Each structure stands twice: as structure tokens, then as C-alpha cells.
Target: O-acetylhomoserine aminocarboxypropyltransferase
Amino acid sequence: MTDRLPGFSTLAVHAGAQPDPTTGARVTPIYQTTSFVFNDADHAASLFGLQAFGNIYTRIGNPTTAVLEERIAALEGGTAALAVASGHAAQVVVLQQLLMPGDEFIAARKLYGGSINQFTHAFKSFGWNVAWADPDDIGSFERAVTPRTKAIFIESIANPAGSITDIEPIAEVARKAGVPLIVDNTLATPYLIRPIDHGADIVVHSLTKFLGGHGNSLGGIIVDGGTFDWSKDNKYPMLSEPRPEYHGIRIQETFGNFAFAIACRVLGLRDLGPALSPFNAFMILTGIETLPLRMQKHCENAKAVAEFLAGHSAVASVNYAGLASDKYNKLARKYAPKGAGAVFTFSLRGGYDAGVNLVSNLKLFSHLANVGDTRSLVIHPASTTHSQLDDAAKVRSGAAPDVVRLSIGIEDKEDLIADLEQALSA
Ligand SMILES: *Cc1c(COP(=O)(O)O)cnc(C)c1O
Model:
């Protein structure tokens, strides 16, 4: 043993995992069981009363999923994490701990299209109101703060345009307002950006994308930064008030710097129910072992493809923060020095029709609604993921009619460029 702190790649392979104590299995087994036998009646009572940690029922926790949670908490530099069934489930569970009906949260306009829909429509039925701010204008966050604001939500690398968000000044706005900053770190992964290091209090992910990385399993996760004081001003009663369902304990007082992750598990996941399947936890854990290698290749390929497109006569513009000429290159060098990710957009001189044609003519790229696969993916947001937005909202969220989004995979970059070349000249 040494005192060395393990590096990122070592944590990606080992954090949270040990050989199975019963069988010696080196890879974390899939504990495909709904429930767990108690030692005796006292043990059962202490688990239910939150006096002891342990397994009860897979909706609340599972040993395979627990390894995934510990691993991602380590990679993000958080105190604890809670895995759930999808990225969208993570967003619901987080905000349910923070907002009461009539409360508000501020969200950056440049977001995954599904998040824009969730915030605008589904959350309205819970009585949660979203105020939109422009991630390129820090003042727009300040101006949106009201006495009912309970959180700020941004993406580190924003979907679909791959723009880099200036996290630190937005974290400062959140601190002044006395609310947590939630960062969706899906497109960056902790390999490229660790938002907690820049002032975020909570990190959420769609594990479906680069973390799982192989396009085979949905999942989501919530990481507690352990940085926020939930007891101040009784602003967050779920965390600061006695909980009748747990003998009157106060979550913040009892669990300290991992109180938020506990609240998400024992109040959110337990009652709302979006549990991750242990099988998906296993698939995603396996994916994470190669996260550093994959992200290096994703970023290297994305840069090469972006450079090729920037020099092509059919292309009007390329938005890739890894290009020296890009508007976000300075922020990319500050927040994501290892690479600007692998999801970006470009626009075609031929407009909407050219976008639709390109998508139809590509052969190696798959036309589908996902990102963060080993395979290269393409989509025309205006006719698909962002089609429900009106034209002005499409433009504001980076999905104008002439825009095509790519998610660059880990194939040989020469093959990706050849495919784009044939499709652009078809
Ligand atoms: C996909 C995605 C989500 C939603 O995640 P699901 O796992 O599909 O529910 C949220 N945020 C971002 C940035 C995404 O790419």
C-alpha cells in the first residue's frame, strides 16, 4: 500500500469495486434480485429506520448499482451518488427534493431538447416554474433570481451545439442567491470536466451517453458535491424539516455532507420509483472502465472531422469548441483542456433540405436520436429532437433549420471523413 491518491484511469477501473466476498468473482456480479434477507427483526427495523445502511429492496438500492454509484462519485469528486433509470429521472428526483409547488428554478436555454420539454411542460404540472437564462450572458441568471428561486440548472458542454458553459461565474450567482448549482455533465463526462471543482453543488448525468458509452443501456445518476448547507433559512424543508416517514429525523442534520444523495434515495427514488436495473448498472460499469481511452479517441476524431468540415465548400459554419477559431475555444481551454467533447453542430449552405439530404446519404454514420455511442451518429435537430420548438426557440437553443448535429464515435477518423465527403457531394 502507498499513500498515493489513485488517478482518474485507476478510479475508472477500480473505484467502488472489490472481489465478491462470497465467490471471489473479480468483476462486480449482477445482483439480479428484487430483495434481500434480513439478519433478524432488529436488523430489519434499523434498516427501515435509516439507523443502519444495507440492502432492503432494489427500488431503494442494489449492490451492483452501489458500485456504479461509488465509482461515479469518485470520478466526479462528490461525496455520494444515486443511480436512477435515466437521465430524465435524475432531473425529476433532484428537483423534487428542492422545489415545492409555486417554486422556480433558472435553467440555461441551451439544453438537451428533452430537458427543455421536461422543464417547460411536465414540470409545469408539478407547479415548478422554469425561468430561462442565456448561458453566454451571466447577467441574465442574476436578473432571473426571485425569492422563490430554488436552483440553477446548466449543462457543462451544451447540447446540441457543443458550446462550453462558463461554470464559475454562474456558480457565483447561485452562491449569492443561496441556491445550489446543478450541472448536467453528460456531454463532458468527468474525464473532460469536473463541475464540482468549479463550484457546482450537484451533478447529474444521462449514463445512457458517454459514461455507458456503447449505446446499449439507459441510466442516470445524481452526484452530491457535499458543498451546500441545506439547513439555512429553512429554504429546503425536505432536507431540513423532521421527516414523518422516518421517525422525525432531519436529513441534513443526520447525514451531513451526503444528505442530498440520501434525500434523493430515501425520499425521491423510494417514492417516485425510477430504479435502475442491476443489469444496466453492470453494462454501464463495464463501459466506464474504458471511459478515459474512449474519450481521448472521441475528442481526437471530433477535432479531425470538425477541421475537415470547416474546410468544405458546402459547409457554412462549424461550431466545435475544439477549433482555435471557435467562439468557445477560450472556455474550452479553461474547462476542458483534454478535449472539447465529441458532440457538435455544423450548418449547411443548402439550409433545411441540405440537412435532410445529408442525413439520408451518410452510410457509416447512423441516423438516430442519441449521442455518446462508440458508433458515429448524426441527426438533423430541426426535424427531430427540437421539432416541437418554434423557429425562434430552435435558433436560441442552437437547432436552427440548417443545423446538423454529429456525435463522433471511435472508428477510424479517415473512414468518418470519407463518409461525410461522399454524402456532402451526393
Ligand atoms: C440524453 C440526455 C439527457 C436525458 O437522458 P436520458 O437517459 O435519455 O433520460 C439529459 N441531458 C443530456 C445532456 C442528454 O444528452
Q: What stands out?
A: Residues 86-88, 112, 114-115, 155, 159, 184, 186-187, 206, 208-209, 218, 220, 371 surround pyridoxal-5'-phosphate (CB under 6 Å).
